[in-house]
Amino acid sequence: MSGLINSLLSNDIGIDLGTANTLVFAKDKGVILSEPSVVAIYNNSKKVRAVGEEAKKMLGRTPGNITAIRPMKEGVIADFEITETMLRYFIEKAGNQLKFVAPRVVIAVPSGITEVERRAVKESAVRAGARMVYLLDEPLAAAIGVGLPIWEPTASMIVDIGGGTTEMAVISLSGIVYSKSLRMGGDEIDNAISQYMKRAYNLMIGERTAEEIKIKIGSAFPLFEELSMEVKGRDSVAGLPKTLTITSQEIREALDDTFNAMTDAIKETLEHCPPEHSADLVDRGIVLAGGGSMIRNLNLRISDVTGLPCFAADDPLRAVANGTGAVLQDLGKWLENS
Questions:
Q1: 303: nearest Cα among 157, 190, 152
Q2: Which residues are CB-contacts of 215 (< 8 A; sequence separation ≥ 6)?
Q3: The pTM is what?
Q4: 180, 168 Cβ separation under 8 angstroms
């Protein structure tokens, strides 16, 4: 009887616990929260000053007594205490919109993390208030979230590019045939841009500025009309503020090594496909998900390298969160098959 009451009153939620952003999916309601994975704390007392959107605004701008921290690095927990605080904030915030019994939680995690890292995610979620925690591999969650027919005996391929990881997998009969996980993603792209600005122009820029450059003029393949933008930062030699103009072609060249690493991993994944699955992918192609997949012409670069059609998902940012939501709808079945 108590189990029935819990199921009726529980806030079953799915969490895309990302390096850059955390999304929360509520059963029967969809994505109800989407905020940066950032926590700001007071240095002396270690008390939390802000979480999520408010904390991200403080990155690179905090006074000496406050530090803004991103507790997730490369898709895994780098700071357990801060991650637990962040999870509790998101779970409680979701709970305020829903019911009041401790939730069952589905959390998407990179397919390449270790058992120790998986256990750490579970323990953090339980301490943050979850009643039960089920971990779901991110590429599988993304494939479900974009609507790929994973139950069929034919193969589908997903490439999910997040803030800290790039996950690629060939999926058939609701299971992963082969997957590869790179501990690089949008953060690596931002870092490559920052390093290029320092190397080429002696210009020091923050991660927010690097992210802005990526969004405004970043591309993976030549554009029909190249873009440019004005960038402001600090001259590393003179130590004074400096402004200059850069082009999308420069940034594309700066990101060449990063994109090559991604396409090499995609080719390796394809090389491990059984022949019948390879034949399926010739027709179905590759689907891109995750925030990193939104960089201009990335699908064209992957198509050029692999010879396969490549498409961006309709809602790449919410793909993984939507996948956790679909699992929530039939959690008993997934638990039986896991």
A1: 157
A2: none
A3: 0.88
A4: yes
Q: Among 207, 195, 181, which Cα is nearest to 261's?
A: 181
Q: What's the CATH superfamily of 186-254?
A: ATPase, substrate binding domain, subdomain 4 (3.90.640.10)
Which tokens hold the place of 13?
A: 């939620």
Whether residue 18 contacts residue 163, with contact meaning beta carbons closer than 8 Å, is answered with yes
Kindly report, residue by residue over 113-151, the tens digit of the pLDDT.
Answer: 889 888 888 888 888 888 889 999 999 999 999 999 988
Q: Which residue has the tokens 């689907």?
A: 287
pLDDT score at 10:
56
For residue 8, name the pLDDT band (cuts at 50, 70, 90): very low
CATH code matching the domain that covers 148-184+263-314, chosen among 3.30.420.40, 3.40.50.10420, 2.60.40.420, 3.40.630.10: 3.30.420.40
108's tokens:
């998407």
Domain boundaries, the chain: 2-141+319-337, 148-184+263-314, 186-254
User: Could you tell me which of 158, 55, 173 has the C-alpha nearest to residue 111?
Assistant: 158
Q: For 229-240, how does the pLDDT look when each residue is reduced to its tens digit (9 = 90+)?
A: 999 999 999 999
| DSSP-H helix ranges across the chain | 2-9, 53-56, 80-97, 115-127, 138-145, 186-201, 207-217, 248-254, 256-271, 275-284, 298-306, 319-329, 331-337
Torsion of CA 194, 199, 204, 205, to 10 degrees: -20
3-class DSSP state of 125: helix
Query: Rounded to the nearest 5 degrees, what angle is found at the Cα of 124, between the Cα atoms of 288 and 106?
Result: 45
CATH of segment(s) 2-141+319-337 = 3.30.420.40
